Amino acid sequence: MSERKVKIESKVGLHARPAALFVQTAAKAPGDVTVAKTGGTPVNAKSILAVLGLDARHGEEIVISADFDGADELLGTLEALLSTPEPENA
Amino acid sequence: MPERGNAAESGAGTSGDSVELSGAGVSPGVGFGPVRGIAGAVPEPSADVLPAGDAEAETAAALAALAAVADDLEARGVVAAEVGNKDGQDVLNAQALMARDPGLADGVRAKAGEGRAAARAVFESFGVYRELLAGAGEYLAARVTDLDDIRDRTVARLLGLPMPGVPESDEPFVLVARDLAPADTAVLDPAKVVAFVTEEGGPTSHTAILARTMGVPAVVALPGATDLADGTLVLVDGQAGTVVVNPPRAAVSAARYAAAARATVLARATGPGRTKDGHPVPLLANIGGPKDVPAAVENGAEGVGLYRTEFLFLDRATPPSDEEQERAYREVLEAFPGGRVVVRALDAGADKPLAFLPPPGAEPNPALGERGLRMLRRHPDVLAAQLSALARAASGQAAKLQVMAPMVTDAEEAAFFAAACRDAGIEHPGVMIEVPAAALRAGDLASEVEFFSLGTNDLTQYACAADRQIGGLAHLQDAWQPAVLDLVASAASAGIPCGVCGEAAGDPVLACVLVGLGVTSLSMSAPSLPLVRAALAHHTLDECREAAEAARGSRSAGEARQAARGALPALADLGL
Questions:
Q1: CATH number of the domain encompassing residue A51
Q2: Predicted-complex ipTM score
C-alpha cells in the first residue's frame, strides 16, 4: 500500500481541467487508486464524479493511495500533477 | 432587413386556419418556415415500470446507452473544435468523461440488481451524484446542469424519446423553445434558423441578444409557443412581435414586400452615422472577439463601442497569457484605423464565474454582488495584466483605444480605475454607467474619467429592480421606461462624451430618442447598424430632441414609445 499526502497547487482546486487530467491519469492504472481529504473517506480516483464531489480546493491537502505493482510511479505522476499550479495538457 | 427562409410558398395557406399570436418582438426582420421545437424536459422514468430483461440485460442496455451518449458528446466536441470552438470541445469532453464514470456504472449495476428497469436505474444512479455535487456548494452548480443533461440524453436514448437540445434539420426552420440557453446555441447553424420564437425571455434575454447578433428575427415571451407542433408553418415578424400560424399566402407576400422595401431603404443608408441635418453620431459595433470584426466592418461600423473581453477568460483554468491578450486586442485595433475601439475590462462575477477568480462566497443576488470592477479590485493582478496588454496592443496603432470599467458605482471607484489605467499607460479611461447611483451622480464621476458608456440592459434591470433572466418581468425590462430615460439624460448632461452600448442603441426609434437626450455615440450588434443609420439619417437633431422630450413626458414605457414615434415623422418610410 503506497500513500502520498499532496497539497493542491492548482488555483481552481481539484476541479475543471486539473480534475479531468487527474482522473484520466488514474484511470490508466492496473489496480485501485483512491483519493481522500485528510481524515475523510477515500473515493475512487478513477471516477470524475466522486473526485469532483470531494470539492478539494486550492491549498488543501489530500491523500492519494494505491496498491499494485508500479503504484509508486503512478502516485508520483499524480503528485506532480497536483503540485503543478496550472497543468497544461488535458 | 431581408426576409429569411425559403420554405415552399405553396405550403402557406393550404391547411388549417390562420391564427395570429402576440409576444415581444426583440430582433427585427421577417422569417417564414416550419416550426422545429427544442424537445422539452425528459420526464423522470417511473419506478413502477418492470424491467424488460434480467438485471444483466438491463445493466448492459444502460451502459450501452451511456457509452453512446459519451461517443455522441465527443463527436459534437470534434465538430465544435472544427468551427474553432476549442473551449466548447473541452466542456463536451468533460461531459463524456462523466458519462463513462466507473462509479456511475457501479450504481447502475446495483440498481438493476434491485430490479429496476434500465432507464430508472440510470436516473437513480445519477441522483446520488447530483446530490453530492449540489451539496458541494455554488462552485459545482454548473456541473449539476451538465450531469442532468447527460442523464436526460441517456434516459431519452433508452426510452426512445426525442433527444433534448437543438433539433437537427436539413431545411431551414423556425426554432421554438421555452427559452434558449447558451449551451443550446453553441452548436446552432445560423444558415438553418430563419427565426426564433420563445415562450419565455425578455428583450435582454440570451435569446434576444443572440438573435440580434445573428441578424435573425425573434419574438420572445409568446404564450403558447411551445404548443406549436413541429412542421407547422409560421410567419414571424420580429418588429411587430407577432407569429402568424398558417399564414394566408397574401400575408407572406405582404411581409416579403415590406421586408424588400426596407432592404432598399437600408441599402441607401451608408457612410458615417449622422442626423438628417448633419449632426454626427458615430455608429459603433458591440463585439465579443476578433471573430465579430468582419460583420462589424460589413455593416459599416465606424469602430467598436463595446469589446467584451470575457471570451478570453471563460471556460479555462488559468488566465490567458499576456501575449494571447495582446494579440486579441491588436487584431481588433488593426481593423479600425482612424476609428475608435472601446474595450471593457473583464466583466466577471458571481453570475459569470471564472475558475481562477473564485467568488468570495455564496451570493443570493449575483446581480447585486461582487461583479465587474468590484471583482477586479479583488484581483488587481488580473486587472493590471489586462490593462498593460491593452496598452502594448495600442502602441503604434492608428485606432484610438479607450478602456472602460464595468459596474462602477461612485466617483471613488471611477478614480481608482482611472489611476489603474494611468499606471498601465492607457490614455483614455472611461466607465460604464449601469448603476443608477452612477447615473444620478454622473457629474462626480465625470471629473475622474474621459467618457461614459451607458449599459442600458443593466441600467434598466437596476432602475426597475427587474431581473433580466425573468421573462415574466419583460414589461419592466424595457429601456423605454421613463425613469431609465431620466437616468440616461442625467448621464448625458455631465459634460463628457456619453455613448450607449446597451441593446437600446440598436432599436432605431429609441436610438433617435437617445441622440435627442444628448448621447454622443451608439454601439450595437452589427446587424442593427443599417436600420439605426437609416433612422438617424431621416430625422433632424431637433426632431430627435422633440421625441426625447415627448418620451420623458410620458408615464409608462408604452406611452413613451408612442409619444416618441409621433415626433419622428419619417419612421413610416422605413417600414417602422
A1: 3.30.1340.10
A2: 0.91
